[in-house]
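User: Here's a chain of 126 residues. Predict its fold as tokens.
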Amino acid sequence: MSVHIAFETPQDIKDSVFELVKLVGKEGNGTVKKGANEVTKCAERQTAMMVVMAEDVNPPELLAHIPMICKEKNIPFIYVDSQEYLAEYAGMARGTKTAAIAILDVGREASDRFDAVKTAAEGLAN
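Assistant: Prediction complete.
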């Protein structure tokens, strides 16, 4: 397991995370910030409702500090397989990658999915 991965995320939960990211990012039912630097700022300022990180980040030390900040600030966080898919579902141009995203706001259409993913993330982190 990589240095930034605090727990293993089952595939069915990863699929739910991708659907949430798609609802919030690509379909515009909320607000996301993309990239390790933006996610770090949002976590430190406690403006993030949840953080999603890619497992295939290289070097993994790029994200090693984010789980610690999230735990300190009581922000749920979770992992997905791919930077490329994370970027695509977040609404970024095809072929780009993002190491992490922060969900800042969730619209009404995505709130049930958000609640389910948040519960799963909190259960996995404990």
